[in-house]
TrEMBL record:
Domain Cation efflux protein transmembrane as annotated: residue spans: 29-220
Location (main, coarse): membrane
Protein name per the record: Cation transporter
Subcellular location: Membrane
UniProtKB keywords: Membrane, Transmembrane, Transmembrane helix, Transport
Any GO CC annotation of this UniProt entry: membrane
Any one Pfam family match given in the protein's UniProt record, by short name: Cation_efflux
Organism for this UniProt entry: Ruoffia halotolerans
Residue spans crossing the bilayer: 29-54, 94-113, 125-144
Record membrane topology: Multi-pass membrane protein
Superkingdom of origin organism: Bacteria
GO molecular function, one term: monoatomic cation transmembrane transporter activity
């Protein structure tokens, strides 16, 4: 419904300005529509004497405050990087989401108290046809608002607007409960308005707690999705010249600011200039195709050394024999102080119960008995993102 309008709006914005301006537009739409809904439900609640309708209206007033915070959040997030914040200000959006969550919970607790009072001292409802019309209109407005948020969230990849869209859908069901409650009380005379208000308050508090959890996760930093990792892996697999890759680390400094580091395994016979050209191309492709600022660490691999290759294959067979789906990288065979060393990192899948010491003992025993008395230097990695795809 709104996709064409939002696409046209974004196409008219300058590079780098589309996302914050779309977020600010969504904030303005939400501010106006939520304040309108607050007025409608306050009128309906005052006319009918319904605590649940007034509670629902105050929920919309809280949504208006959330929209205002969304405006400030996107404005702050659009500020360019500076000396104090070299990675930009996009995480301001997450802080805004956290503040919005606190407002939602506060509103929920306030009206839970009011609803309990209504249950203890119920007053009759006076719901005229106009009250029911106002409630139906507010449901339609929320449906339209939710679709707008959802479309905008997809267009600019905003978790904040996605949460706002979900909140709008939740509000539709909240108002439906209010409408059903008013209908039941009008038809049967059962005074359930306070109970409906209490239920709504619990729903509001629960949604606020969920939103706080999402905001805290964004601020602390979370792993990229499997789709994001797969997109990076697919792009890396296009480079037939590299031997392999490992140790992917991803850091997000906002919805549009993603940095990553990775180790790229290359043929150790390459000269420095050619190696640099290959790495530069990989980093440029990540920036252009995925919007990720990648930094590559080079790991030279002696793929033309027959002794090295034979030991590599033996170690691979040994790790496979444990049937733990162990993978390894950074493999090197060298001599130090008249001693031969084998060095490599082992990636351990989730669910492996053996400790690092137990695994070292198992690997060392088999290497010594099958390959020879090499000194082993083994690092274990239980957090490798690439093992998930």
């Amino acid at each position: 419904m709104f996709k064409g309008l939002i696409d046209r709006f974004l196409s008219k914005q300058a590079n780098g300005e589309a996302r914050p301006k779309a977020g600010i537009l969504a904030g303005r739409v939400g501010l106006i529509s939520n304040f309108l809904l607050f007025g409608i439900k306050l009128l309906a609640g005052t006319m009918s004497g319904s605590i649940s309708i007034i509670t629902d209206g105050m929920n919309n007033l809280g949504d208006s405050a959330s929209s205002l915070l969304t405006l400030f959040g996107f404005r702050a997030a659009s500020k360019p990087a500076d000396k104090e914040h070299p990675y930009g200000h996009e995480r301001s959006e997450y802080i805004t989401g956290l503040l919005i969550s606190v407002v939602i919970i506060y509103v929920g607790f306030q009206f839970f108290t009011s609803s309990i009072k209504q249950i203890m001292n119920p007053t009759p409802l006076n719901a005229s046809p106009l009250v029911f019309i106002l409630l139906v209109v507010s449901i339609l407005v929320k449906i339209i608002q939710g679709n707008f948020y959802k479309t905008a969230a997809k267009a600019i990849h905003s978790n904040t607007l996605h949460s706002a869209a979900q909140d709008s859908i939740n509000d539709v069901f909240v108002t439906l409960i209010v409408l059903v409650s008013a209908t039941v009380e009008t038809v049967t005379g059962w005074q359930i308005d306070g109970y409906a208000g209490a239920l709504l308050s619990v729903i509001i508090v629960y949604s606020g707690i969920q939103a706080i959890n999402d905001s805290i996760n964004d601020l602390l930093g979370t792993s990229p999705s499997k789709d994001e990792i797969q997109a990076m892996k697919t792009l890396l697999d296009e480079y037939d010249s590299i031997v392999g890759y490992h140790d992917l680390l991803v850091h997000n400094y906002g919805p549009n600011k993603t940095f990553a580091t990775i180790h790229i395994e290359i043929d150790d016979s390459w000269d420095l200039t050619y190696s640099h050209q290959v790495i530069d191309q990989i980093e440029a492709d990540f920036e252009e195709k995925l919007g990720v600022e990648l930094v590559c660490h080079v790991d030279p691999i002696a793929i033309h050394n027959e002794e090295h290759t034979a030991i590599y294959r033996q170690v691979k067979d040994i790790l496979k024999s444990f049937q733990l789906d162990l993978k390894f990288h950074d493999f090197k065979v060298d001599s130090k102080n008249h001693r031969s060393h084998i060095t490599f990192d082992v990636v351990i899948p989730d669910g492996v119960e053996e400790s690092n010491d137990e695994l070292i003992s198992m690997i060392q025993e088999k290497i010594h008995s099958n390959i020879g008395a090499y000194e082993l230097v083994i690092e274990f990695d239980r957090l490798d993102l690439l093992k998930e795809v």
